[in-house]
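[job 0412] stage=fold_complex status=start
inputs:
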Amino acid sequence: MNQSPGVVDLLGVLAYAELSAFLRLAEDAALLAPTLGDRAALGELAVAEYGHFKLLSRKLGEIGADPDAAMAPFVESLDAWHAQTRPADWLQALVKAYVGTGIALDFYREAARRLDPAIAALVDEVLVDEGRSEFAVERVRAALEADPTAAGRLALWARRLVGEALSQGQRVAAERPELARLLVEAVAEDQAEISRLFARLTEAHGKRMAAMGI
Amino acid sequence: MNQSPGVVDLLGVLAYAELSAFLRLAEDAALLAPTLGDRAALGELAVAEYGHFKLLSRKLGEIGADPDAAMAPFVESLDAWHAQTRPADWLQALVKAYVGTGIALDFYREAARRLDPAIAALVDEVLVDEGRSEFAVERVRAALEADPTAAGRLALWARRLVGEALSQGQRVAAERPELARLLVEAVAEDQAEISRLFARLTEAHGKRMAAMGI
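[job 0412] stage=fold_complex status=done
writing structure:
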């Protein structure tokens, strides 16, 4: 089929991001949730990520790509991100589920819009939040009301999540120069657009932090 | 609402069995799956278990029970079963997903039929396999064709899964004497029925073992 170059890469990295988010959220739910209700709630977020993975995997099949092959180049970087951002407790798990995932998904959305408007709609659909994050926001806010001193620790944690995401992003860019080149070219003709992109990502991240009270 | 006694207990143990199966299968998928396709396939089994958990949790709510409170008495025993049957490799994970879960679900089905025919239909619906186990059967058969010597090791593993399930079952019976009494009374009037129950469970287990080639 007639595909914009880079589309298979983008859908592949997204598909593996969703598959690994599903598995890691389930692991966090099993290991860190303080109550059965919390375990079920984080489990539900995990299941939603799996649904996204299925949509992306099907889309890859429809455009004639092998989903496993499309995901393979990104397994190492995404697994490394998860290994380096393994939550030590329940609050860290919630912040990771909301803030860490949030900034990654914002980036994927921007990238899709630049690469190929035809897949931007699918990506938007796949990445819709559906109010699932309310759960994490409420729990973190309540914890910080009970213990305001935890805010500094969680702010550091959020910074680490974003820092590790940036460093894995650079690794992907180095390993997939074609994908990186396409993304850069898509914005490079307009230097101001790069600034606006970063401003949008930073603003959305700040809103998520504020929503949690961090 | 007018509930047969023991129904909340039975739905509670089943709900937690499904929730913990979901989380453990996801963990096995993350840690042990040799390929991305395998990871996604075991992930899909995990997500199906979560769907069952949701149905049971909703049913508990409908009959006026608190799902968390209904599950709580069974958390320790089921977590202990999972801790003692943590698969060491991918084949052990598949055998656990198919054989270990299979015998537990057969038992729940029999128990539901005895306790209250009204919930037997729901339990049957929740526990329907939907051909999901084909995946595990195919993979184990293929592995044993490539290496027939693994069969003995996997047969021992299956025996351990069942042995640990029996010992946790005895623990639950000791901790929930009311539930145990109801189940025993439901069959005690007919000694032959107890034999038939065990014969059915054993036969179904043997069929699963044979299907896998163990």
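[job 0412] summary: Chain A touches chain B at residues 16, 19-20, 22-24, 26-27, 29-30, 35-37, 39-40, 43-44, 46-47, 50-51, 53-54, 57, 67-68, 71-72, 75 (CB under 8 Å).
[job 0412] exit 0
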